[in-house]
TrEMBL record, chain A:
PANTHER family: AMINO ACID BINDING PROTEIN, LEU/ILE/VAL-BINDING ABC TRANSPORTER SUBUNIT
Domain Leucine-binding protein: 40-364
Assigned protein family: Belongs to the leucine-binding protein family.
Protein name per its UniProtKB record: Branched-chain amino acid ABC transporter substrate-binding protein
First and last residue of the signal peptide: 1-25
Superkingdom, taxonomy of origin: Bacteria
Source organism of this protein record: Actinocorallia longicatena
Record key words, sorted: Signal
Database matches in Pfam families: Peripla_BP_6
Automatic annotation (TrEMBL), chain B:
Leader sequence residues: none
Keyword set, alphabetical order: Cell membrane, Membrane, Transmembrane, Transmembrane helix
Residues that span the membrane, as ranges: 34-53, 65-86, 117-136, 202-218, 252-271, 283-312
InterPro entries, per database record: ABC_transp_permease, LivM-like
Subcellular location: Cell membrane
Organism classification: Bacteria, Bacillati, Actinomycetota, Actinomycetes, Streptosporangiales
Protein name, as recorded: Branched-chain amino acid ABC transporter permease
Membrane-protein topology: Multi-pass membrane protein
Principal subcellular localization: membrane
Origin species: Actinocorallia longicatena
Automatic annotation (TrEMBL), chain C:
A Pfam family assignment: BPD_transp_2
Membrane topology, as annotated: Multi-pass membrane protein
Name under which the protein is recorded: Branched-chain amino acid ABC transporter permease
Swiss-Prot/TrEMBL keywords: Amino-acid transport, Cell inner membrane, Cell membrane, Membrane, Transmembrane, Transmembrane helix, Transport
Keyword Ribosomal protein: no
Organism: Actinocorallia longicatena
Organism lineage: Bacteria, Bacillati, Actinomycetota, Actinomycetes, Streptosporangiales
Chief location: membrane
Entry keyword annotation includes Ligase: no
Origin superkingdom: Bacteria
Length: 390, 373, 328
C-alpha cells in the first residue's frame, strides 16, 4: 500500500476545511452592520502623514474638537470618530476608503485633497454615505453628478479669477510670472488663473516645479529674466516655502502671491521669516478671523489651543464646522446616512469659518475670498482684496 | 560569536522540514503534483473568506488588500523574477511597465471606449514593446549600468506621465470603466463576474486567473531551451555567448516577457481602481518589488510568490503600528537579508551557485557580480 | 524657448556648478563603495540626510546665530561642517557594520546586499520622520520640511548672502563660491589620499582584486570601513553645503539628491574619483540648461535621457572606470 505523503494529507485537510468555511461564509459577509450600543460613527479621510499632512491634521483636529464638545453634553447617542490616513496620495486612498465603508460611518469628513477625492468619492456614492470636504477645491469635482458629496470651500475657478483680479486691480501688476507645483489642485488653479489674467491683458511667464525636488534655480533664473511685478504660486506650502526662499536669496523682489494650499506656517518655516515677509495669500476660508463679528470664533480659537496645545491652522475651522453640521443633524434625529444626506440639503448656518448652505451639486453658496499677509514670521488676516496693497 | 552559532543552528533546523518537502516533491508522481496545483489554485480563490479577515487584516478591508497590494505585487514579482531571477539582469525601473499597462487601459477605454477584454492584450503588447525599445539599446550594458538605466527609464516614464497633457498630467485619468459585467453568476454569495466599485472579490478572482496563467507560461519557459539559455547567461554571459547562445536575443526576450507581465498587472489594476495617476508609480515601488523577489528567493517561483505576499501583506497587517510600520518594514528587510541572504525559499540550483561564489572575502560575490565581470 | 536659455545662460551656469559640486561630493560616496565592494549603496542618500541634521544639531546645541563675517564666520562654518561630517561619517560606518558586513561575511549575493541597502534606507528615513525629527528638531511642526531659519524654534542664520560680482545674467554669490571652491578642495585632498597614502593604496588594491589584496596582507575589513568612512565624510560635507545653500532639510531630502548623485557617478564613470567630479558638474549644468529650454518640469527626464545616451556611446561613463579593474 502506498503511503500518502504527510504534506498531501495536510493539504487535503486544509482544502476541505476551507471549503466548509466558505460554504457558511458567503452569507455572513455583511454581519455586524448595526452600530453598537447607541454610538454613531463619523469618519475622517485625508492626509495624517506625508509631505502636506499638516492641512489634514488641522482638519481632523477641528473635527475632534467639535465631537469632544458634543459628547461632553451627554447626548442620547455619543459620536465616535475614526480617522483614515491617505497620506494625501490618490493611490493609497482607495484601500482606506474601502476600510472606511466597512466601518459603516453615517457621515464622512473629507477627502481633504482633490486628487484623492476623484479616487474615492465614487465609492462613497455607491455606499450612499454623505461626505463633506472642508478643503478639496478642484472645480471638476462638482461636475460628476455626485449626490452624497459636498464641500464647504469654493472651487478653483472662482478663486483663480478673484486672484487675477486682485493682482491686476489692487497690485496694479504689469507683468506676472506663474509657477505651479504640478499637483492636481495646482494645475486646475493655474489654468483658471492664466485664463483670467490674460483676459485682463497680461500674459504671464510660466514654469513648473517638482514639489519633491530641492533645487529650483532654473525656475528662479527664469523669473529673474522675466522681471515680473508679481510671482503667483499655485501649489502647496511644502514646495512654496522652498521656492520663496530661493527666490529671495536669488535677489527676486517681486511680490509673492499664493493660495490656500500655501496658507500654512510651514510656508514661513521653510522660507524664513525675512524671505516670507510681505507674501500675500488668498483663501476661500477665513482661517478664523478673530475680528469677525461672531463670539463663537474666539471661543473656538481658545478651545483649540487648550486641546491641542497648538494654534488652529488652515481648514481647522472648516473641519470644526463640518463636524458640527453632522452633529446638529444627528441631534435632530437623523441617525442613518440616508437621512443625514437629506438633512444636508436643509442646512443654512453661520459657521465659524463662513456661512454654510449647499447648492444642488454640493457646492457651497458663499464664495467670498479673504486675504492674508505674512508679517514678522506670522500669517495675518487682512480681509478683503482692497486691503492687500498697503 | 555565540549569537552567530545560535543563528546557524536555527537556520539548519528550519531547513530540515524544507529539505524533506523538496525531496518528496522532486520524486512525487504527476497526479500528486497536479493535485497540489489544483488545491493551491482553489485555496487562492478561497482566500477572501471573511472569517480570515480579523486575523489577516484587522486594519484594512481584507478582500480589498488581497487585490492590491497583495495580488498585484505577486504578479509583478513573478514578472520581475523573469528578468532578475532567470536572466540575472538587475532592473530597478520595473514599475514603468506596470504604469504603461495601466495607462493603456485608462487611455484606450476613456478616449476610444474599448472594453477591458479588448485592451488587455493591447496593454500587454504595449508593455512588451516598451520593454524591447528600452532593452534593445541598453542590454549590452552589464550589471549595474543596466540597473541605473532601468532606474532612469522608470523615472522618465513617471515624469512624462506627470507632464504630458495627453495623459492628464499629475491629475491622471479619471473614470476608467470597469470590465463588462456578467451578472447572475453567484457562487457562495459573491457575484463573481460583477465588477462594481465596492466588492474587490471579482477583481481578485480575475487576478488569480491571470496569475495562474502567467505562472504556467513562465514555468514552461523555465524548463525549456529558453530557460536553460537564461541560466547560462546568468551564470556566465561570455561563456554562454561562446557556446553559441544568442545572448542578446534571449536577454531581450526576458525583458519583453517581464514587461508584458507588468503590463497585464497594470491593465487589471487600472480597471479596478478606475483612476490612474503618476503618483502610483514611484521608484520605491520598483525597489519593493525587487525586494519581494530577493526576499522570497530569486529565481524560484514559490519563493517569489511568498516574498511578494509578505512584502505586501506585512505592512498592511501591522497598520496598527501606525507611523512605525515603514520603519519596521525597513528593519525587517535588513534582518531578513542577514538571516537568509538567499531568500526564504531559494531555488536549489541557485543555492549551489551561491555555494561556489566568492565566500567571505572582500567582494560580495555571486550572481550579478558574475554577470558583470 | 531658447530665449530663456540665452538670457539666463550665465545664471544657469553658476547655479549648475553649485548643484553639480554637491552632486559630485555625494557621488564620491557611491563611487568609492562601488569601486571596492561593487555595491550600489542605496542608503548613501540617507547618510547625506543625516549630515544635514548633524549640522542642524550643532547649531541648536551651540546656539549659534549670526550672521557672521570674517574670522568668526570661518570658525562657525568649520564647526558646523565638522558636525555634519561627524554625523554622516559615523552613520556610514555604523551602516557598514550593521547592514553590510554580516552579508559580506556570509558571502551573500550582491542582490541581497542591495535589498539590505534599500531596507536600511527606508529604516533611516522613517527613523528620522517618526522619532528623531519630532523629538529634537521639529518643535511641534511634525514631519514637515524644516527651514534653517527655524532651527531650534527660532530664526538662525550663518551668513548674509551677497552678490560679489556678476557675469552676464549670473550673480556670483559668496555662498556659491564657497561651496564650489570647498568641494573642489575636498576632492583634491581625497585624490591625493587615495593615490599617495598607504591606506589609499590598500583601497585601490582591494578595488582591483580583493583576493590578491588579501594575500598581500591588506586588511579588507579595515579598507571597507575606511571606504565607507570617506564616503560618509564627503556626503556630510555635501550635506552642510546643501544646508548653507538651500537652508532647508527634511527626512526625505536625500532621496532625489541620492538618485541624481548616483546618476552623476555613473555618468562620469563609476569607481572613478575624477569621474564623480565630471559627472556631477555635467549633470548639474545639463539639468539647468535643459530646464531653461524645455521647462523645469522636464529636468529629471533630461538628466536620465543624457545618462542613457552617454552610456549608449560610452558604456562605462565619460571617463570610464579606474578605481577597479576595467570590465568588458
Amino acid at each position: 500500500m502506498k503511503r500518502v505523503p504527510p504534506v498531501m494529507r495536510l493539504l487535503a485537510v486544509a482544502g476541505a476545511a476551507s471549503l466548509v468555511l466558505t460554504a457558511c461564509g458567503g452569507s455572513d459577509d455583511k454581519d455586524g452592520g448595526s452600530p453598537s450600543g447607541g454610538e454613531l460613527k463619523l469618519a475622517f479621510i485625508g492626509a495624517q502623514t506625508g509631505p502636506n499632512a499638516q492641512l489634514g491634521i488641522n482638519i481632523s483636529n477641528g473635527v475632534e474638537l467639535a465631537i469632544a464638545q458634543y459628547n461632553a453634553t451627554n447626548p442620547a447617542k455619543k459620536v465616535t470618530l475614526a480617522k483614515y490616513d491617505t497620506k494625501g496620495d490618490p493611490a493609497a486612498a482607495p484601500a482606506q476608503a474601502d476600510t472606511l465603508i466597512e466601518a459603516e460611518p453615517i457621515g464622512i469628513i473629507g477627502p481633504a485633497f482633490s486628487g484623492e477625492s476623484k479616487a474615492v468619492v465614487p465609492k462613497f456614492e455607491e455606499a450612499k454615505i454623505p461626505s463633506i470636504s472642508p478643503s478639496a477645491t478642484s472645480t471638476k469635482l462638482a461636475a460628476n453628478g455626485w449626490k452624497y458629496w459636498h464641500r464647504v470651500i469654493t472651487n478653483d475657478d472662482s478663486q483663480g479669477a478673484e486672484d487675477a483680479k486682485a493682482i491686476l486691480t489692487q497690485l496694479k501688476a504689469k507683468s506676472v510670472f506663474l509657477v505651479d507645483d504640478n499637483e492636481e489642485y495646482s494645475i486646475g488653479l493655474a489654468g483658471k488663473f492664466v485664463e483670467a489674467i490674460k483676459a485682463g491683458g497680461v500674459t504671464p511667464g510660466t514654469d513648473k516645479i517638482d514639489p519633491n525636488a530641492n533645487d529650483y534655480s532654473s525656475t528662479i533664473n527664469k523669473i529673474k529674466a522675466a522681471k515680473p511685478d508679481v510671482v503667483f504660486f499655485a501649489g502647496y506650502y511644502a514646495a512654496g516655502g522652498k521656492l520663496l526662499k530661493q527666490m529671495r536669496d536669488g535677489g527676486v523682489t517681486a511680490k509673492f502671491f499664493s493660495d490656500d494650499g500655501a496658507l500654512d506656517q510651514g510656508l514661513i518655516d521653510a522660507a524664513g521669516a525675512k524671505q516670507a515677509e510681505g507674501a500675500i495669500i488668498s483663501c476661500a476660508c477665513q482661517s478664523v478671523n478673530p475680528t469677525a463679528d461672531n463670539p463663537a470664533v474666539g471661543k473656538f480659537i481658545t478651545d483649540y489651543k487648550a486641546k491641542f496645545n497648538a494654534d488652529q491652522g488652515t481648514y481647522s475651522a472648516e473641519g470644526f464646522d463640518v463636524a458640527n453640521i453632522y452633529l446638529e443633524g444627528i441631534k435632530a434625529g437623523n441617525d442613518t446616512p440616508e437621512k443625514l444626506n437629506e438633512y444636508l440639503k436643509t442646512v443654512n448656518v453661520k459657521g465659524i469659518s463662513k456661512p454654510i448652505k449647499f447648492t444642488e451639486t454640493g457646492e457651497i453658496e458663499d464664495k467670498s475670498i479673504f486675504y492674508f499677509l505674512v508679517k514678522s514670521g506670522k500669517l495675518e488676516f487682512v480681509g478683503a482684496a482692497d486691503k492687500i496693497a498697503s | 560569536m555565540s549569537a552567530r552559532n545560535a543563528l546557524d543552528g536555527l537556520r539548519s533546523t528550519a531547513a530540515v522540514p524544507g529539505q524533506k518537502l523538496s525531496s518528496w516533491w522532486g520524486g512525487a508522481p504527476v497526479y500528486q503534483r497536479y493535485a497540489v496545483y489544483v488545491l493551491l489554485f482553489v485555496g487562492a480563490l478561497l482566500l477572501p473568506y471573511s472569517g480570515l479577515a480579523p486575523i489577516m487584516s484587522p486594519h484594512a478591508k481584507w478582500s480589498s488588500i488581497l487585490f492590491f497590494p497583495i495580488g498585484i505585487y505577486v504578479l509583478l514579482a513573478i514578472g520581475l523574477n523573469v528578468v532578475v531571477g532567470y536572466a540575472g539582469m538587475l532592473d530597478l525601473g520595473y514599475v514603468a511597465f506596470w504604469a504603461i499597462g495601466a495607462y493603456s487601459m485608462a487611455d484606450l477605454s476613456v478616449r476610444y471606449h474599448w472594453t477591458f477584454w479588448e485592451i488587455l492584450p493591447v496593454g500587454i503588447l504595449m508593455a512588451a514593446i516598451s520593454g524591447i525599445i528600452l532593452g534593445a539599446p541598453t542590454l549590452r550594458l552589464r550589471g549595474d549600468y543596466l540597473a541605473i538605466v532601468t532606474l532612469g527609464f522608470g523615472e522618465i516614464i513617471r515624469k512624462v506621465a506627470e507632464n504630458a497633457e495627453y495623459l492628464g498630467e499629475t491629475r491622471g485619468i479619471n473614470n476608467v470603466p470597469h470590465p463588462p459585467d456578467i451578472t447572475g453568476v453567484n457562487i457562495g454569495g459573491v457575484d463573481i463576474f460583477d465588477y462594481g466599485i465596492r466588492d474587490a472579490r471579482p477583481y481578485y478572482y480575475l487576478l488569480v486567473v491571470v496569475i495562474t496563467l502567467v505562472i504556467i507560461m513562465v514555468k514552461r519557459m523555465e524548463h525549456s531551451r529558453i530557460g536553460r539559455s537564461w541560466a547560462a547567461i546568468r551564470e556566465d554571459e561570455d561563456a554562454a555567448e561562446l557556446m553559441g547562445v544568442p545572448t542578446f536575443k534571449f536577454k531581450l526576450l526576458s525583458f519583453a516577457i517581464g514587461a508584458a507581465v507588468g503590463g497585464a498587472a497594470g491593465v487589471v489594476w487600472a480597471a479596478k481602481v478606475s483612476f490612474v495617476a503618476p503618483a502610483a508609480f514611484p521608484f520605491i515601488l520598483s525597489a519593493t518589488i525587487l525586494a519581494a523577489v530577493v526576499l522570497g528567493g530569486s529565481g524560484n517561483l514559490p519563493g517569489v510568490v511568498l516574498g511578494a505576499f509578505m512584502v505586501a501583506w506585512l505592512p498592511e497587517r501591522f497598520r496598527g503600528a501606525q507611523e512605525y510600520r515603514e520603519l519596521i518594514f525597513g528593519a525587517v528587510l535588513v534582518a531578513m537579508m542577514i538571516w537568509r541572504p538567499e531568500g526564504l525559499i531559494p531555488s536549489r540550483q541557485r543555492k549551489a551557485e551561491l555555494a561556489e561564489g566568492g565566500g567571505g572575502s572582500g567582494h560580495l560575490g555571486a550572481e550579478v557580480a558574475e554577470v558583470s565581470k | 524657448m531658447f530665449d530663456d536659455f540665452t538670457s539666463s545662460f550665465w545664471a544657469n551656469t553658476i547655479d549648475g556648478m553649485t548643484v553639480g559640486s554637491i552632486y559630485a561630493l555625494v557621488a564620491l560616496g557611491y563611487t568609492m563603495v562601488y569601486g571596492v565592494l561593487r555595491l550600489i549603496n542605496f542608503a548613501h542618500s540617507e547618510i547625506f540626510m543625516i549630515g544635514t541634521f548633524g549640522a542642524l544639531a550643532t547649531m541648536q546645541i551651540t546656539g549659534i546665530n549670526g550672521p557672521f563675517t570674517g574670522f568668526a564666520l570661518v570658525a562657525v562654518l568649520l564647526l558646523c561642517l565638522a558636525g555634519s561630517m561627524l554625523a554622516s561619517g559615523g552613520a556610514a560606518v555604523a551602516l557598514e557594520r550593521i547592514a553590510y558586513r554580516p552579508l559580506r561575511k556570509r558571502g551573500a549575493s550582491r542582490l541581497a546586499a542591495l535589498i539590505s541597502a534599500i531596507g536600511a534606507s527606508l529604516f533611516l528615513q522613517e527613523l528620522f520622520a517618526t522619532v528623531i525629527i519630532p523629538k529634537w528638531f521639529a518643535h511641534g511642526r511634525g514631519r514637515d520640511t524644516l527651514g534653517l531659519a527655524q532651527a531650534g524654534g527660532e530664526p538662525r542664520r550663518l551668513m548674509d548672502k551677497e552678490v560679489l560680482f556678476s557675469i552676464g545674467s549670473g550673480d556670483v554669490r559668496n555662498d556659491k563660491v564657497l561651496i564650489i571652491v570647498a568641494a573642489l578642495a575636498m576632492m583634491i585632498i581625497l585624490q591625493l589620499f587615495v593615490t599617495r597614502s598607504k591606506l589609499g593604496r590598500g583601497i585601490r588594491a582591494t578595488a582591483q582584486d580583493p583576493e590578491t589584496a588579501v594575500l598581500l596582507g591588506v586588511n579588507i575589513d579595515r579598507i571597507v570601513v575606511v571606504t565607507f568612512l570617506i564616503g560618509g565624510l564627503m556626503a556630510g560635507a555635501a550635506a552642510f553645503f546643501f544646508l548653507l545653500f538651500y537652508e532647508v532639510t527634511s527626512y526625505f531630502i536625500g532621496f532625489i539628491l541620492g538618485i541624481k548623485a548616483f546618476t552623476a557617478a555613473v555618468l562620469g564613470g563609476i569607481g572613478n574619483l575624477k569621474g564623480a567630479l565630471v559627472g556631477g558638474f555635467t549633470l548639474g549644468l545639463v539639468e539647468n540648461y535643459g530646464a531653461s529650454i524645455f521647462g523645469s518640469e522636464w529636468k529629471d527626464v533630461i538628466a536620465f535621457t543624457i545618462l542613457v545616451i552617454v552610456l549608449m556611446f560610452r558604456p562605462t561613463g565619460i571617463l570610464g572606470e579606474s578605481l577597479q579593474r576595467a570590465r568588458a
